[in-house]
Amino acid sequence: MEGNIIIADDDRSLRTVLAQALTRAGCKVKATGTLSTMWRWIESGEGEVLITDVMMPDGDSIEMIPKIKEKRPDLPIIVMSARNNIKTAMRANEFGVYQYLPKPFDLRELISNVNRAIKEKSNIYSAVNVKSRPMHLEENLPLVGSSSVMQTVYRQLSKLTNTGFNILIEGRSGTGKSLVAKVLHDFSERKNDLFLEINLSTANIDSIRNLLFGSKSDSFMDIKINPEKKEIGTLFLDEVSDTSLPVQNIILEFIKEKELRESSGKASIAENFRIISSSKVHLKESVENGSFREDLYFRLNEFSVNLPLLEERVEDIPELCAHFLKHFLKEGFEEKTLSQASIDLIKKRKWVGNVRELKNFIGRLVAISTGDEVDHKITKNELSEIAKNDVQESYSDSSEISKSLEKHISKYFQSLGGNPPAPGLYQIILKEVEVPLITSTLSHCQGNQIKAAKLLGINRNTLRKKIKDFDILVTRGKKMM
Fold first, then answer.
1. Residue 425's Cα: distance from chain center in Å?
2. Can you tell me the distance from the alpha carbon of 405 to that of 316, in angstroms, rounded to the nearest whole number?
């Protein structure tokens, strides 16, 4: 590729690495460590692409973007930042940057973005009037964490906030799906409109029908539900995966009617809202097993955001703990800090309930500790207490297995097209479950039948008989991965 690139970063070594990489790629590069020099080059018309860090010795580069856009509206700007939070990503997007890259980043990704920016330069214009829409973000950010997986989420959100697409947010319980939905609303052009949430896991079918299709006196745009007389900006369907097929039919009918009115040009301003949905399971799998309508899935999932488990972002735990300590201070609790030993213990725990469970745990520590600093002994004792619930959590996992089996059996009956199954279905299903259960347990125990029988809770002779009856191959010394 060929192009003239301006690099602005106060890190000399990073400037050198970027300049060498882009030069090898065929570009001409000018690099500086100050905003003043960067602006002088831009003002004189130099550079086809600008690559800049956010915090520089003489100012904040994002604050300069309106000035740059006014002078050079067609100049693609790639922003790099070590301040990896939702605020930085949103500010960069709000000011119309070409790309936002959190540090550390993949050098190949940067070069690819530069190459694409050069090719598209003639078609790039400022997406927003930055002078008329300054960014005012609260310091109390709704999403916390600087891990690479959260950076991916931030970048997705920054691109989706001001679109009209319906968005599906997927993530296990406690990962922050409702927070993400609120971010998509609060940081968008719809922020002054109403955010209406319907919890589909608790609402009954009649209330959902009344909310979506009720008369003027009880529909979801009614003044009783919307006393401030705001227009609806976002309709949030929380835990859509928990809905029955009849409820899915109602939602689909509602969306089809909305689409019809929009396509015919008859939609009112009050109907110009976006639908955001959440699901604690991968909804595509629910479509595949027949428990969720495919046509509804594609309407809700015009774009998707996947939230990571807390165990996938362990490096965010210290930051999350500090955030929750501040939260409970505002709630009226005494100011507390966590010892490093306490944080280390917390990081080792597998938080099944994800961020929500961690928040509740920090709240308990704040409530029971007496000193200014939460001692690691208290943290260890409380972690031991919640570890006792691991058995109950395993029962919860068993419940998920039961639901999965139910869906597969239901799908099997549907495949018969109304015809009866072959006789002996009960024994067939039992065998389908029993064989992999015994095989997996034996593999886990490396073929040791005494240990396997103990784990299964059956007599050793019973296990031997089942191995023989089902012709199960027993291999010792090979542990299942």
1. 41
2. 36
Same domain, 249 and 100: no
H-state helical runs in 239-313: 245-263, 283-288, 294-300
Cis peptide preceding 423, ω within 30 of 0: no
The answer on 233 and 194 residing in a single domain is yes
Q: Which of 278, 306, 334 is the last residue of a domain?
A: 306
Query: What residues contact residue 177 under an 8 Å CB cut-off, 6+ apart?
Result: 169, 170, 171, 238, 278, 280, 307
Q: Could you give phi then psi for residue 462, rounded to 5 degrees?
A: -65, -40
Give the integer Cα–Cα distance in Å for 163 and 179.
18
* 232 close to 295: Cβ distance less than 8 angstroms: no
CATH of the domain at 161: 3.40.50.300
Range of the domain at 109: 4-123
| Phi, psi (deg, nearest 5) at residue 35 | -75, -35
Q: Per the domain annotation, does 135 fall within a domain?
A: no
Give the integer Cα–Cα distance in Å for 200 and 238: 6
Amino acid at site 144: V
Could you tell me which residues come within 8 angstroms of residue 8 by beta carbon, excluding any fewer than 6 positions away? 31, 32, 33, 34, 35, 37, 38, 50, 51, 52, 53, 56, 61
Residue 168 lies in a domain: yes
Q: Is residue 260 located within the same domain as residue 314?
A: no
In this structure, are residues 323 and 145 in contact, taking their beta carbons and an 8 Å threshold? no
Cα-based angle 271, 272, 273 (whole degrees, multiple of 5): 95
Examine the domain organization and report whether 298 and 319 are in the same domain.
no
- In whole angstroms, give the CA distance from residue 202 to residue 36: 57
Cα 12–18–24 angle (5° rounding)? 135
Instruction: Give the tokens for residue 68.
Output: 């740059």
Whether 299 and 314 share a structural domain:
no
pLDDT in tens, the chain (481 residues): 788 999 999 999 899 999 999 999 999 999 999 999 999 999 999 999 999 998 899 998 888 988 998 888 889 999 988 776 677 777 777 777 888 888 878 888 889 889 888 887 644 433 333 333 333 344 446 788 888 888 888 888 888 888 889 999 999 999 999 999 999 998 888 888 889 888 887 777 888 888 787 644 444 444 334 545 567 889 999 999 988 888 899 999 999 988 887 777 665 545 678 999 999 999 998 898 888 999 999 999 999 999 999 999 999 999 999 999 999 998 888 899 999 999 999 999 989 899 999 999 999 999 998 889 998 999 999 998 887 765 455 444 455 666 667 767 776 776 676 677 777 777 777 777 888 889 888 888 888 888 888 888 888 888 888 888 888 887 765 443 3
